[in-house]
């Protein structure tokens, strides 16, 4: 089994005994760890929902809405960072901690960790697709801007090469 999922966001919901997490297990309490992992999972679910919305906004070019959504995502990521900090003592002592867990607790924690890892993987995949779409849009917009600029330069060149502008085709008397 892997160690509890590392995250980039967090919220203070439960603060485990940071000095010695295995002592909490020896006392029969995996509650703080489970609470942290469940909170992490909830945040990943919300982040995944926002990630799906982000994909739709990127596809439709909804820039203003996308900026608001990114601010919401950042709040969730900040919360996940705090949870990650709270999970660190468990990760650092995972082998000892795991050995002290009862089998049902071990299975429950493993399931929460695996679900979090799967959600994070899906979020990262969606973010990569969105990034690629944004890059393609940027290249396309750059090409369009180049054509507009080139067209303007051609018009200026045509105007100056014709000498006196529109009057060059008329005789002196008008």
Summed up:
The chain is built from 5 helices and no strands. It is mostly helical and 174 residues long.
What do these coordinates show?
The longest helix has 59 residues, at 103-161. The chain is mainly alpha-helical. Residues 5-19 have low confidence and may be disordered. It has five helices and no strands.
Strand content: under 5%
Distance between the termini: 92 Å
- State the shape: rod-shaped
| Main beta sheet | none
**Alpha carbon gyration radius:** 29 Å
- Which regions contain 5 or more consecutive residues with pLDDT less than 50? 5-19
Determine the fraction of residues in helical runs and give it as a percent range. over 70%
SS-based structural class?
Answer: mainly alpha
**Alpha plus pi helix count:** 5
Q: How do the helices and strands follow one another from N- to C-terminus?
A: HHHHH
Question: Based on DSSP secondary structure assignment, what is the total number of beta strands?
Answer: 0
Mean pLDDT: 78
